[in-house]
Fold this sequence. Notes:
Elements: H1 2-33, E1 45-47, E2 50-52, E3 54-58, E4 64-68, E5 73-80, E6 86-88, E7 109-111, E8 117-118, E9 122-125, E10 128-131, E11 140-141, E12 154-158, E13 162-169, E14 180-188, E15 193-202, E16 206-207, E17 211-213, E18 230-233, E19 235-239, E20 252-253, E21 265-266, H2 276-281, E22 285-290, E23 297-303, E24 309-315, E25 319-323, E26 348-352, E27 367-368, E28 374-384
Amino acid sequence: MKRIFYLSMIIGLAFGSCTNNQQKGNQQDTMQNMVKIPDSVNFQKDIAGKRTNLYVLKNKNNMQVAITNYGGRIVSIIVPDKNGKFIDVSLGYDYVETFQKDGEPFFGALIGRYGNRIGKAKFTLEGKEYNLDANDGVNTLHGGKMGFHAQVWDVKAVNDNSLQLHYTSKDGEGGYAGTLEVEVKYTLTDDNSIDISYQAKTDKVTPVNLTNHAYFNLNGEGDSTILDHLLTIKADAITPVDEGLIPTGALMDVTNTPFDFRKATLIGARIDENHEQLKRGKGYDHNFVLNKTAGLQLIANLYSPKTGILMEVLTEEPGLQFYSGNFLTGETKDGKGGKAYQYRSALCLETQHFPDSPNQKNFPSTILKPGDIYKTKTVYKFSTK
């Protein structure tokens, strides 16, 4: 009996040891498959009297999203590919100082007070002309040089899967009227979605158009191209632009043009065609007029055949700016891990109201009045197929 007892103990210990080792091995495999996010120490800095930091959201699937309160920027998005290997699909930097460089292309930033361009850096509202910060030739782009992307946001709440940020845009900032109180909440859900909820209120009439400027490459950040991605956009028209990339005020039917993404299409298939709008944008840099009604709806899909990663875009907004990374140059190696971000090596899908709406009477209004609440939501959902 003693022999049987001791033999049972030995088998039990061996089985327990194997189980523990297997669990440790699985954990080690998962850790080996994980991509390292930038070091949070590199984001701890005092800027304009406020402290910046890096916040990492996680879910039960080991997906991670790193966000800094400098510009409310998404720094990394780490998701599994079709083989279970984790990769980073969002461009960014390893140091907060790099985001402060002149000419930095708004990597991952929260954009305001007005996303996209306003022609000739001015508009007239209630009989008064407002002159804005011209930072894109004679035009204003993404709120001006010191737009929301260049501000330190206050952290209102943070936990394992959400980050709530607040920013007060003072009356006259960037040339805009009114003090605008803005709150943005990032939430990483267990279905691998990044929910971005925006809310704002003002004490004076002002245009508001908020968005996020994440750059995606579903092959992995630092990969050389997004031209092999398949893109679907539910839009029958775009708002064509003039030579300065300001909307003409008309709508252009996408039928029989390189802008028809109503069916999944390789981004590189038509990007260099001899089309006036492609020449003006140096590729795709256009607002798509979405086929949607009110509420949160699926409006775009992005898919990488290489990694099997699918990104679905849902929004409450009427427009989507598809930008194909035409102004990335790869001249410097200041991307994460010393990478050079090459020409057309990432794209943006910026949910928004239309560009230059304060100067375009036929576009959906972007005017926010005192007593009203600006509220909108966008979701980037990741999966594999």
